[in-house]
Write a structure and sequence with these properties.
This protein has 131 residues and is an alpha/beta fold. It has one domain: Response regulator (Rossmann fold). The chain contains five helices and five strands; from the N terminus they run E-H-E-H-E-H-E-H-E-H. A five-stranded parallel sheet has the order 2-1-3-4-5, sandwiched between helices. Helix 2 packs parallel to helix 3. The chain is globular.
């Protein structure tokens, strides 16, 4: 699976990147919102795991912008935050799920596995078969 990690802490992003790569995923990192938009359009991720507290825009704004990009409207967006998020803002931004820091690798992998299942169902549905 192709995963884009967005966190303003390079240490956090790179640590999770290493763990996800070890689990077999292709991973790219971005450290700010505008950088993430550029990386997402070039990398075409299956999932984006983003911090809600970014320096140039918050994660809600980033998720909304990602949903507006051609080819990214169906990407799975997982928000990660240090404090409880605002549920209405999560829904409005199109964020699929959220996790509180510190996250466990097993939690992230579980969220990504859910994406794999959804992708498989979408592909079947596009071929005229029921999921």
């Amino acid at each position: 699976m192709r995963v884009l990690l967005v966190d303003d802490s390079p240490d956090v992003a790179n640590m999770l990147k290493s763990l996800l790569e070890h689990a077999g995923h292709q991973v790219r990192c971005a450290f700010a919102g505008h950088e993430a938009i550029s990386a997402a359009t070039a990398f075409s991720p299956d999932a984006v795991c983003l911090d809600l507290g970014l320096p140039d825009m918050d994660g809600y704004q980033l998720a909304t912008k990602l949903r507006e990009e051609v080819g990214l409207s169906g990407v799975r967006i997982i928000a990660v935050t240090g404090s409880p998020p605002e549920p209405a803002k999560l829904r409005q931004a199109g964020i699929d799920c959220h996790m509180l820091k510190p996250v466990r690798l097993a939690e992230v992998l579980k969220a990504l596995i859910g994406q794999n299942e959804r992708l498989s169902q979408n592909r079947l549905g596009e071929q005229g078969q029921s999921p």
